[in-house]
Amino acid sequence: MSLSLNQKTINRASLAEAVDACARAGIEAIGVWREPLADVGVERGAKLVRDAGLRVSSLCRGGFFTAADRAANRDDNRRAVDEAAALGTDTLVLVVGGLPTGSRDLAGARGRVAEGVAELAMYAGDAGVRLALEPMHPIYCADRGVLSTLDQALELAAAFPVEQVGVAVDTFHVWWDPRVLAAIARAGDRIAAYQVCDWILPLPPDTLLARGLPGDGYIDFRTLGAAVSDAGYRGDVEVEVFHADVWAAPFDDVVAEVVRRYREHVAP
Amino acid sequence: MSLSLNQKTINRASLAEAVDACARAGIEAIGVWREPLADVGVERGAKLVRDAGLRVSSLCRGGFFTAADRAANRDDNRRAVDEAAALGTDTLVLVVGGLPTGSRDLAGARGRVAEGVAELAMYAGDAGVRLALEPMHPIYCADRGVLSTLDQALELAAAFPVEQVGVAVDTFHVWWDPRVLAAIARAGDRIAAYQVCDWILPLPPDTLLARGLPGDGYIDFRTLGAAVSDAGYRGDVEVEVFHADVWAAPFDDVVAEVVRRYREHVAP
């Protein structure tokens, strides 16, 4: 396993700037987000990454299956698959979506997610792209992701061939789960992505920005990382931080700190 | 099942004021907190409640087993048991505690909790008091409660006689859990307390105060309540809200609103 910079960690950077920052820091892989990719266009973005000799560890993100406009959602998810294929990554991370507006039907929302994955899985597999279902911390269950545990994501993934649907393990989302180590072991080759950031307190007012650099919080990365490695995962480890101070800092400073934190807290 | 006012919902009220507010609203049971009980003294507090003809649905709260001073923690928890017995309630709700300061050893903290429960269980049972292990929303895992799911609480409780250790089901803490309905069914007569409040968004800056009145958020109380009833629970339903606006409002207004919300969203 080796370090990948998820470009969200330097959120203000264009794709070109993020690619350059990786290259300067000797980081060999990058996790790309769709919005900055769209800013330069898929073809040009793919060339940028390729010319720099970087692997794309994942494309973030598709999903949002509980959206009101299902047809638009399906189309957008297919575009996300196409973009992943164009970038040469085999992993599309999916944030599945929260409760539909005004709804309290959590079981229904979870059913919608299963339907959405079923509609997309074969399309993805045919494009050589695997959907990585990302269980999200229950803090986001209502508004962002009704997949709340790794077990739950694995149960959903199990209905599909392993080359079509896997899971994304993100330390922030799963660290608290009393079953997480067993779930990681069970996940085996379903693990399509491994992302790290820390759980920090106090939570910032915007809880979306509560994801700190490894070492700033409460998560034991060695134990989780060893479990992921023991499960057979040999892909990249994306450092993906959402934090106002990190986003405000100069890109090269952040990337250097990411490298330090990765070595100190995460690397096997 | 019938309505109980957890006195935290009118946080500024003294025990006497909370008891009076219940009596005026025709509420027959109250969930008592230790701090306002200490303000009047246990004996006088017990008399206040008894004279008003109220049941005490639970005493909140003991626990915090991961505290640095284990001897002081043990003594305090035994006092909490004694206070519950003096109040005539058979239920002491336990918030088990978060990670010890500076620690990332979640498994170790969970082990400490199991030891703490083991030390207290027989003392409680001998006093006619049952410990109600409260699984807490994972948002509080680091700093407040390392019991994160109902399944986990039930696994811990299973090591003890049912009259010594049960669980507290609080909608806020468990609503997101994909296994919660099965866990409630499995809990059966381990359910020692049922508390309701809603998950609201956006989360307030102090996430401790993110617990809204039923109907203000995303939780489907009918489904959870039916599961609790089907599991055989026949105790009181505590409305326990932590919210700055609710805490700032006049007590009688809040209690009247609690009664309305209970009827509209919670009552079977």
UniProtKB/TrEMBL annotation, chains A, B:
Q: What positions does the domain Xylose isomerase-like TIM barrel occupy?
A: 19-258
Q: Name one GO molecular function term.
A: isomerase activity
**Protein origin, superkingdom:** Bacteria
Q: Which InterPro entries match?
A: IolE/XylAMocC-like (IPR050312), Xyl_isomerase-like_sf (IPR036237), Xyl_isomerase-like_TIM-brl (IPR013022)
The record's SUPFAM superfamilies line, in alphabetical order, gives: Xylose isomerase-like
| Pfam families with a match to the protein in the record | AP_endonuc_2 (PF01261)
Q: Which keywords accompany this UniProt record?
A: Isomerase
Protein name as it appears in the record: Sugar phosphate isomerase/epimerase
Organism whose genome encodes this protein: Cryptosporangium minutisporangium
